[in-house]
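pasting input
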Amino acid sequence: MYNRKVNNAISKEHALYLARIKRKKLLIRLTQIGILIAFIALWELTARLNMIDSFITSQPSRIVNTLKSLYREGTLWMHISITIFETIIGFVLGTVLGTAIAIILWWSDFVAKVADPYLVVLSSLPKVALGPIIIVWIGAGPLAIIAMALFVSLIVTIITVLNGFLEVSPDKIKLLQTFGASKIQILMKVILPASVPTIISAVKVNIGMSWVGVIVGEFLVSKAGLGHLIVYGGQVFKLDLVMTSVFILSIAAALMYQFVAWLEKKYVRWQY
Amino acid sequence: MSKNEMVSLKNVSLKYHSLEGETHAINNISFSVNQGEFIGIVGPSGCGKTTILSLIAGLIKPTKGQVLVDNKSVEGTSTDVGYMLQQDYLFEWRTIMQNVLLGLEIHNKVNQFTKAKAEKLLEIYGLGDFKNHYPNQLSGGMRQRVALIRTLAIDPKILLLDEPFSALDYQTRLAMSDEVSTIIRKEGKTALLVTHDISEAISMSDRVIVLSKRPATIKTIHHIQLTTEKGNPISRRQAPEFREYFNAIWKELDVHV
């Protein structure tokens, strides 16, 4: 019952069952890849046959060429790394600061109750509206972009993580109290470890938020980075550049998300 | 005062306050428990059974009266008292061994000696092979056993059991009450068991205290004397006197549905 028996001699029915599951998985993956290939092929084909105007829609081969020339100019990695750097700093700061503030609010019921209406207003405010203020106050540079990314993710982190803290079973806290635990011990031994899944899901949300903050920041400040390339491309009507940047952006965002998912699997063993 | 009195409540009353008003939970309760004795407390639901345990554990203070543990007034939680809750509340992010060490960690008493003792307890009670497992890999009964060992690891003199088997299915419940009672008697602990299960109280306890409805007062105290060869709860349930005690307590509880 507790040590699941490994049955080496699989029955015929079970082998069929496993094969069916495997086939289904394969089919899903093939369809996914198929859609992508069909989309790219159709795009390229209709552009070559002049059925769509590739000046406006760009086309896959031109995207590849733009990638190549950016790479040759040596600016490709510069733009990518600036944007990724700003995003990482933004979401790490957002997560750490947000969690720290959530801890303060958990610690003091008074502070939490006082802060509540302010948090509600701040969380419903579109943070992008703060962009011009941030630029005026901090200056048009990478710092303003990071601040933007931080603001976008901070409030939502505070609210999510605090809710996670408050959802920890009161009986688990009572258990620690019966052992005579202090408030700091309750925080360290149950509140924080029990909230690891909440914090990780906040991190996953924050990555997306941070990308939004950074790209908007780069739209506004516009000196380097993928957001800058997109805005610049749009202004000079180089849709190839815009599409290429969006393409790079989607790959970078997906990779970063996968990385956190991998970290979660690796370190939150007890969940699985 | 007798020398081997481990727990004693003297004219204890308690009122809870909430926005809805004042709740008189218990009223003028006095009883004492001797070293090594097993006491069962039964009463109508919501009558304040758990409150009595919280008072002994030092989680709350009485409005009136005095609570003594080992002849000292209770001024907060102490390692003299171990508390077992309705569910195991094992921390799923800790291994079984880490869960067992929780109480010791809080008291900063984790050392080679206490660790070895905790490990030995796990060995004795059949969980040695599971010490590096996580709680979700264990069955309900095993988890409850881990919870008991977690409580025993701080080496308390008194164990408070708050309906510790209520989350288990009936068969596991019978087996666990048998096992837990054997463990507690073997370790020579004094125990107070709160339960709504009359049979469980009679089969496990030396004395059963019956409480009235809220505000709880003591209705009767039954000295359980059963003619059995073996003293474990399952065989105690076979004793001829068992039904008489059951009927007497059932009448006193005065349950109306």
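fyi DSSP finds nine helices and ten strands in chain B.
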